[in-house]
Write a structure and sequence with these properties.
Length: 169
């Protein structure tokens, strides 16, 4: 059985480009920017260590990035009334269904709780079922400029399952 771990992207800066490219493969089509350099630069900007934003990366036993999630002040300008927001979560297609997303969320929740954030938010077009499976609650819908209708979900960090820093795949 192979293993996967979750760490702060700031601790693995050599993975910034690979993580940016994972995001580009998932979202690099209209209406989103199509240039991979855009996604790498956004990932670099979100790879903070202290405060928001910060990004977590799931790494396989060989040291390759297989998933990513970030936390920032807000995701869409239209959704600023709550904070912080989950940013750019994606798992490499070859690793989906192997609890990588769940491990990323649990570690994100644990780190957010340590930083004093008690409630997290996410807006999604297609992944509401995944977040609900992970214990997030659907709170409604929002029309986001340029994106359309998105589900809004939230979770509390003060009752989560704890850290998933070393997760068996």
């Amino acid at each position: 059985m192979s293993t996967m771990s979750v760490c702060l992207l700031a601790d693995r800066p050599e993975l910034i480009e690979a993580v940016g490219r994972i995001r580009w493969r998932e979202w690099g089509h209209p209406p989103e920017p199509e240039d991979p350099a855009f996604w790498v630069e956004v990932t670099r900007q979100e790879a903070g260590r202290d405060g928001l934003p910060f990004t977590l990366v799931a790494v396989d036993a060989a040291g390759a990035a297989v998933g990513v999630v970030g936390l920032g002040e807000f995701d869409q300008r239209d959704l600023r009334e709550h904070s912080p927001w989950l940013l750019g979560m994606v798992v490499d297609p070859g690793w989906r269904g192997r609890r990588v997303g769940q491990a990323l969320l649990w570690e994100l929740q644990a780190r957010a709780a340590e930083a004093g954030y008690r409630q997290l938010w996410v807006a999604t077009k297609d992944a509401a079922g995944f977040y609900q499976h992970c214990g997030w609650q659907h709170t409604g819908w929002v029309e986001v400029t340029g994106e359309g209708r998105m589900a809004v979900l939230t979770t509390r960090t003060d009752h989560g399952p704890g850290s998933a820093a070393a997760w068996p795949a």
